[in-house]
Amino acid sequence: MAEVHMTETVPCADAGEDAPKVRIKGLYKIFGETPEAVLEHVHGGMSKPELMDLHNHALGLNDINLDIPARKIQVIMGLSGSGKSTLIRHLNRLIEPTSGEIWVDGENVLAMDDKQLRDLRRFKMSMVFQKFGLLPHRTVLENAMYGLEIQGVQAKEAEERARKWLDRVGLAGFEDQYPSQLSGGQQQRVGLARALATDAEILLMDEAFSALDPLIRTDMQSILLELQEELHKTIIFITHDLDEALNIGDRIAILRDGEIIQSGDPQAIIMTPADDYITDFIKDVNRAKVVRIRSIMKAPANSQGKPVLTTDSIEDALPKLHRSPSKCCPVQRPDGSVCGNVTIDAAIEALKAPESEGDDVRYA
Amino acid sequence: MLEFLTEFPSLGRQDLSSFKQGIDEGFRTFSRANGEAIEAFFNPLLQFLIWFEDVLTGAPWPLVIFVIAALTWFGARSWKITTGAVISLLLIGIFGMWEDTMSTLAMITVATSLCVALGIPIGVLMSRSDRAQSLVTPILDVMQTIPSFVYLIPVVMLLGIGKVPGLIAVCIYAIPPIVRLTNLGIRLVDRDVMEAAEAFGASSREKLFGVQIPLALPNIFAGVNQTIMMALSMVVIASMIGVRGLGTQVLRAIGNQYLALGLMNGLAIVALAIIFDRVSQTYGKRLQAYRETGHG
């Protein structure tokens, strides 16, 4: 199975990255009575509204191609109705595609029979849900054990592992409570513990934090990032919240009307939005916090200021730039080597959001 | 012309009677040919019924009361209900209805167990397939609304008079609620929870026994409760075809205008019904204790 997949080379932004953990190729999903029959119209370039008007079929996903790197957080972002939840459910086949390919570790997910698919879901991918999806008749501990129970792990070991993960997400002491006794944030921690306990390499998170209050949401993001630093799972994270996407995403794909309109490094999306839709999308972002120095630095030159890091935000760097006599600082990689310099003018320039050229297309 | 409008153009008297005779004759031949086989099929059930009734009527009454009190306590965990049950049973005994009550109790217990054993699987089947649901629902409608005397006729023709036909008549009347509520309960299970089970790779067995049935239990229990109540309400009719018990006495009272006899036996049925109802309801409520606490 692997050779089919491995023969194709993957264009990677960063050198030295492994083959993608998950790849989605030419994925289409059409909802309606005879999706296969109208697929050719979509191939022929028919748009979502046209397909609805002429053939009464809803175009859910339109030619999705995405390589998801291993051990990174891939965010898929879009407004409601953009198809993001549909997309993530294709990865473990909770939804069957109309056409296309999905490969996980070089295995064709769509060719799997029921048993292989169940094994994929049991051992390789676990999922966290927007509405938590906890089993209300089981205690917190029993919920965290659920995936292990399905895997067939011995009760004693399952309990031990579940307790460990509940402890990691800060729920020690809540083991014997029922989900209905917990707050939303606590319930989602149970959801997270349940997903982590299975030791799956891939974590699907479907708007996992969207139902939570803003403060709890940032809290959960920090928990996730902390865990990720140690666990290095391949996380596919769906959200409609750009701040969330920028906070946790190693890569972001933006979805609109079932199509990916831009995908890649979050910095690239902020600095060079692909079209007016995205420009509009990012215009309210706090750029001082999200734009990194590496996105605005120039080739090395003489500069007297204190060095700033490539990973610093503009907010971090501005005081140093201001204090530098030449209003210019050298830029260092985290390992200490100098790789460029940055001027205060560039930093201020970068605070200005790119302007969209056309009309407001955001709600198209 | 006017006659055509005022008189409904029905089949002629001759046609009708030969039509009915055809059906009657057909069924009679069928029951003559298969009656014995069917009776033999139900024989184990009959033996069990007789045995169970003998156990209940033969056992020393203090023991029976103790067992019932214990079951009530384990089901309801309430002193009030348990004491109520004991007092009602004592009163029933004092008024000389002990044996009849035990016969009825045996009948109801067996009928309910049979309904649960058949009804839950049918309900599960219905919940899994819309076709099964659209097929079974009208049958249940008929079973619940058709006057019970109507299906007593073929049952008696097939099996004669006795306990088994009575049991069948009770079950026909009492099984629909358990089937319906099992189906409903499973269909009402939260889709998000089902999706989560699916996403973790649960097989359909694991989903059924680990998620659907546990979450449908409160509804299933409401079904059991309804089934018991309906079975109890059938005891008088069942006694018309030879089921001994409290119903027989009520029937005697109707025939002879014995007000006191009818009232006493009727109230004994009510007492049984209340005990069953309270116990099964409080047990069902205890099953969903997890829903009641905290942040709903």
Description of the structure:
The complex is a heterodimer of chains A (364) and B (296). Chain A is an alpha/beta fold and 364 residues long. Chain A has 2 domains: 2-264, Rossmann fold, CATH 3.40.50; 287-351, CBS domain Like. Chain A is built from 17 helices and 13 strands. Chain A has helices spanning 2-6, 35-43, 48-55, 84-91, 114-124, 140-144, 146-151, 155-168, 184-197, 214-231, 242-248, 266-271, 276-282, 287-290, 293-296, 314-323, 344-351; strands at 22-31, 58-68, 73-77, 99-104, 107-108, 125-128, 202-206, 234-239, 251-256, 259-264, 308-309, 328-332, 338-343. In chain A, the strands form 3 sheets. A 6-stranded mixed beta sheet of chain A has the order 6-7-8-3-9-10, sandwiched between helices. Chain A has a 4-stranded antiparallel beta sheet with strand order 2-1-4-5, with helices on both faces. Chain A has a 3-stranded mixed beta sheet with strand order 11-12-13. In chain A, strand 7 (202-206), helix 10 (214-231) and strand 8 form a beta-alpha-beta unit. Residues 1-16 of chain A have low confidence and may be disordered. Chain B is mainly alpha-helical and 296 residues long. Chain B has one domain (21-288): MetI-like (MetI-like fold), CATH 1.10.3720. Chain B is 86% helix and 0% strand. Chain B has 14 helices and no strands. Chain B has helices at 2-6, 13-58, 61-76, 79-94, 98-128, 130-145, 148-159, 163-187, 191-199, 204-233, 235-239, 246-256, 259-287, 289-292. In chain B, helix 2 (13-58) crosses helix 5. The longest helix of chain B is centred in the N-terminal third of the chain and has 46 residues, at 13-58. The mean pLDDT of chain B is 91. The A-B interface holds A 92, 94, 117-123, 125-127, 129, 131-137, 146-147, 149-151, 177-178, 180-183, 194, 198, 204 and B 190, 192-193, 195-203, 206, 210-211, 214-215, 290-291, 293-296. Chain A: The complex is probably composed of two ATP-binding proteins, two transmembrane proteins and a solute-binding protein. The complex is probably composed of two ATP-binding proteins (TmoW), two transmembrane proteins (TmoV) and a solute-binding protein (TmoX). Chain A: It holds the Pfam family ABC_tran.
